[in-house]
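Re-running the complex after MR caught last week's input typo. The corrected sequence lines follow. Everything else is unchanged.
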Amino acid sequence: MTTLLSVAPREETATATLTRGDDHAQTARARRASGHRRARRSRVAYLYVAPAFLVFAIFLGVPIAQTVQYSFYDWNGLGAATWAGIDNYLRVFQDPQLRDSFGHAVVLMFFYAALPVAIGLFLTALISRSHQMRSMSFYRTVLFLPQVIASVVVATIWVAIYSQNGLVNEVLRAVGLADLARVWLGDYDTALFAIGLVGTWLNIGLCLVLFLSGVGNIPPELFEAVRLDGAGRVREFTAITLPALRGQIAVALTLTVVSALKTFDLVYITTRGGPGNSTTVPAFEAYNRAFNTGQVGLASAVAVVLTIVIVLLTIAISRIEPKDVE
Amino acid sequence: MKLSLREKIVNQVILAMFAVFAIVPLLGVLLSSVTPSDENTGGFAIPSRIALENYGEAWTRGNFGVYVVSSLIVTVSVVILTVVLSVFAGFAFARMNFIGSSVLFYVLLLGLTLPAEAFIIPLYFNMRSTGLTDSYWALILPQTAQSLAFATFWMRNQFRSFPGDILEAARLDGARDIRVLWQIVVPPTIAPIMTMAVLITMWTWNEFLIPLVMIVSNNLRTAPLGLAFFQGQHVTDYSLLAAAGVMVALPIAVLYFALQKRFISGMVGGISQR
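Corrected-run output:
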């Protein structure tokens, strides 16, 4: 992304268009007018794009390039930075805590992406047979609701639910499993799964709404046809619904996988990576090392690796998308 | 299509189970927020009385009046800036040919998937060296930049489907581009612009990392950041925390219930076209 930025400086391309417009103008009088107009119009276009692009470049584009630059230095955020070569990157893979943080992100991907997509598909299979169900929009509203609640609020809600006398333990005690009760976010064995389940809770609605919008595009005659052939639920789902939803599945996977890798707010509020390092994730490590422990270079290397992982996974997932979708 | 009664009941039961799973934590926090503090142990229990004073206490003790104002200032600024900038940029990308347009567009698109961690570290040090940290600008400008990727993309798609002959007719009448854009193209596009504004409102209001990194002063904290600090101070006062949480989530939740079609179609449509 940084190469793209440096390859195409805006002003240079702008003058290139203008001079080309001028060449046109000299060839024929008829074309002169249109050439001028085109040149003026493209100048207007650059004026229109410039403010948005400048804001974007200054506050996002340039800092992204700088993150790469920082990642090759040792810097505590105050003093002088010293060249570190690829040391920071080696540490991302050697430091057990950092390595674990990426491992935890993989666990979260199961809870944030695999589980909600599977549940969303299962629910869609049920609902797609009952198009005219009157209560459908009610369910859609309710299932989607967690998506719009601020993550900080979500985190405080779940801290209470997982607490000593919270809902989870209340239910366990009520069904006679009091032995299992514990402070779920404070236990080495359960904290990461507890955070993961919050992700599942968040993403089911998103997946379901995506899939239902896809099912809505399938011509009802297709369902009628397989049903006339005597196909049952399962066959109907694998033969029609699933292939038709490839695009939506790709989108759902992209969004949920990225949300798992980006997890920060939830970990910051609920556990700060603890107990021990059992729930630390890359985004939290990048934040913590840059702003609390004075390892800005190492934090940047974590951020770069995380970004590369996200980009690669996004590309990989887009492969399952049908090609004609553009 | 016809479904047997048994099938209908099974559908309803399974859907209802997941709906309950989605809604119980949210109902729980509402219940918790009106439970008197001394009765609240964090679980679900019917309170002996409705303690609405929790809201008043959270509001004053947690300083939320100040935080909500901060969030309002930042959100309104980001939405206005993003809408204006993205209408211009989206129109240029959709309707004007210029060299480098596709490169510029793809650079902007990168902003759609990149995590905040990819830019937040140098951004903080850049802002610090220009003295902008711990100000509303440190929240407004980066969040505008973040929103612009989606907004420009969204506006380009809207303007692309705008009938070309109307544009030509307006130009032949001698209307300047800027008038064509704001007086002829924008008014019929107002519905998708509203959808976009609603989504950006939600994202900006809910943002946590940027305020966490940029803001030091208590009186500049946004509502979610304020809640995070409040949570740190009152870990076990579940009633106050719940009341504070409801207050932070409520503006967006109300917007969602009022405009849920826009929310859902915007998030689903905008995202899946990517």
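None of the earlier attempt is carried over here. The longest helix of chain B spans residues 64-95. Chain B touches chain A through 103 residues (CB under 8 Å).
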